[in-house]
Amino acid sequence: MKLRYFYQQMIAFFTVIATLLIILAIVFLQFAKKSVYQETEDQLYGYAEALIASNLQENQLKEATFILKNQNVGITVFNEQNRMTFPKTNTPYKSDLSSEYYKKLANGERLSLSFRDTDFMGNPVEIALVYLPFFSQADSSFEGFIGVSAPISYLNANLAALRKNLFIAFICSMIGAIVIGFIFAKYQVGRINRLRNATHKVAKGNFDINLENRERDEFDELAEDFNSMAQSLEASQKEIERQEERRRQFMADAAHEMRTPLTTVNGLLEGLEHDMIPENQKKRSIQLMQNETKRLIRLVNENLDYEKIRSNQIYLNKQTFNAKKALEMITEQLHEKAESSRDQLTLDCPDDVVVYADYDRFMQIMVNILQNAIQFTTDGQIHIRGRQETDASVFELSDNGIGMSEEQVRNIWERYYKADVSRKSTKYGESGLGLAIVHQLVQLHQGKIEVESELGKGSTFTLTFPAKKQETEHN
């Protein structure tokens, strides 16, 4: 069964108020009844004590009986043999007290009883009766007891009137509770509907939502969480759109990069097939096809490498090795490429600098950064510096090439990003994945990579690889 939240709130509020009022009414009635009965009992004991204080003289007993007659108060006196001595009758009466009660009176205890009787018209009457013992002033021996009784039917009449008044008050309170509950429920449901409407807007793609937050209760906290969620969704949507745009750009670049070498290879193959290439040019044609094929393989491998790193499929075989020897090998490998751009590679690294890393991945990181420097530097200087610190090995790779803007520096670690989109057919780094792979590999080493750059002045990449002890503690 579906029950709207508005009616749930109304029922809950009404139930709470009704339960509270019923409990209060019951407690109040019980307290009133007990208080009135206790007051009546104390009054009867007071009459009995006053009569005992006057030595139970017969004329005073008669006078008291006459005075209290209009209150329907009855007075009886019994001696130590449990025989009634006042009022005097021809037949000696005894009280209906049990032997247990009689012993209590003889021991000086007072008794308070109540019983039901009928009046002369046969109507039931509830009577309160108290017994008070009295003793000889000479030797303090038990001489008898006095009983004082009075009907308490008026108490029930008063309670009935009180119950009627409480019922009227209950009805009025319920009406007020319904009105207040309606206002309260409508207010709460209005706040929920506000959040619901905002949710519908977000579901339709409108993330420009800002719910009011007065910091009063959980609804306001929920509104704040909703605002944060909407902001996160908006940021995520923008990031998805940005990544999608980069993916499309990458696919276009990749298609362009693949089409060019494939067209070249296909043209050369057709030329060889139809003997259109002179004999002295065939070797050169084969070399061109090999270069273009390597270019395609490099493009595919870079994408596969990046995906493996992202999915934690790369296993690092870390070891401590001499960093200078590794860097010397890299500079030797890239010497020819640097000369083709008329760049000068210089290495400044002490002989005792060691690094704790995967050797092949370390070489890959350095080669990618240096090839990137060669790509964007012409007639310039490229410096490689290394130093040993207490808990890490630090390497700086700097150039005085074209440099980057602040926006480019923020985005260079992103996949498919190219700092210079005009260079789509450069010999190195055409996929825009080189630095993204470098960033992922450095993070796998629990290392850190930072870049400082200025347009027209060059860039400096600083890489930090933690020492073996430091890296182990980090894990």
UniProtKB/TrEMBL annotation:
Domain HAMP: residue ranges: 186-238
Topology relative to the membrane: Multi-pass membrane protein
Enzyme nomenclature, EC number: 2.7.13.3
Record GO cellular component, one term: plasma membrane
Organism name: Pisciglobus halotolerans
Lineage: Bacteria, Bacillati, Bacillota, Bacilli, Lactobacillales
Catalytic activity: ATP + protein L-histidine = ADP + protein N-phospho-L-histidine
Protein name, UniProt field: histidine kinase
Coiled coil (UniProt feature): 223-253
Domain Histidine kinase as annotated: residue spans: 253-469
Keyword Thylakoid tagged: no
TM spans (from-to): 6-29, 166-185
Keywords, ordered alphabetically: ATP-binding, Cell membrane, Coiled coil, Kinase, Membrane, Nucleotide-binding, Phosphoprotein, Transferase, Transmembrane, Transmembrane helix, Two-component regulatory system
Keyword ATP-binding attributed: yes
UniProt-listed Gene3D superfamilies: 1.10.287.130, 6.10.340.10, Histidine kinase-like ATPase, C-terminal domain
Intracellular or extracellular location(s): Cell membrane
GO molecular function annotations of the record: ATP binding; phosphorelay sensor kinase activity
Signal peptide: none
